[in-house]
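Each lists chain and fold; for instance:
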Amino acid sequence: MEPSAVDALLCPVCGLEFMEPLPGETALKCIDGHSFDIARQGYVNLLTGHGTKFSQDTADMVAARDAFLDAGHYRPLAEVLAAIVGSALAASAARSPGTTPLLLDAGTGTGWYLQQVRESIPVQGADTFAAVGLDISKFALRRAARRNPEAANLVWDLWQPLPVEAGRADAVLVVFAPRNASEFARVLRPEGRLVVVTPRPGHLFEIAQEAGMLGIQAEKEANLVESLAGYFALESATPVTIPLLLAPADVRNVALMGPAGHHAAARELAGTLAGLPESTRATAEFIISTFRPR
């Protein structure tokens, strides 16, 4: 974990700062002595007490997501996203020379989008940045920690107060994850940016019904802006449309990796999709919404 990432964290028990782990240490400790084990894969579980009522993504869902993303189907989305986030981080770096910008990836999943942003940053003008990745799924964070070992990858429930100091993040990235508006506003710098990726109503409509995927509400974009309006103002909205040619395995993976994956077993999906042709055309439709704090 990069020191700048650890320096931005707060202990969920006492609210005090963490100390940077020394080489060979197997725990993350706050200055009051509370200790959280660093898993051998590199992530840290900060959830205490009874944890959360929300379901984490399963190992099957995570494996499907990694396979689909690694196949490059959503790379055009990642390229546009990296340019937007990179621009926000570069602007912060220009305003505060000598400091390391911080990106909070809220709902980092397997860390694939964070990895794409990190690899593109020199092109965008910021030499480097620190990152904190939060996700409720330990299965996802095992992969995220391998992809982004420099980041602080933490098991956390996004609906709880975030374990991050106020005013420390230069950008908050939310890709298909819960949006805790008040907490995002608290951890962002006044000049920071919130970047949210959501599917548009036509997203994968060609295969949605057959694969048992959940439909996208027609008012989803307007509802997003309204839900954040108390804390954020919409600055820009960038649509991204990607034509896809999917093999049966790709259709299975894209169905299993999303919310519908909580309700469908991999074996059941394989049976449902058994009659698919060798390739299926579909269209991925997204909107990247950039917000500034009010």
Observations:
- The first strand starts at residue 27 and ends at 29.
- The two ends are 32 Å apart (CA to CA).
- Residues 13 and 34 are 7 Å apart (CA to CA).
- The chain is about 35% helix and 25% strand.
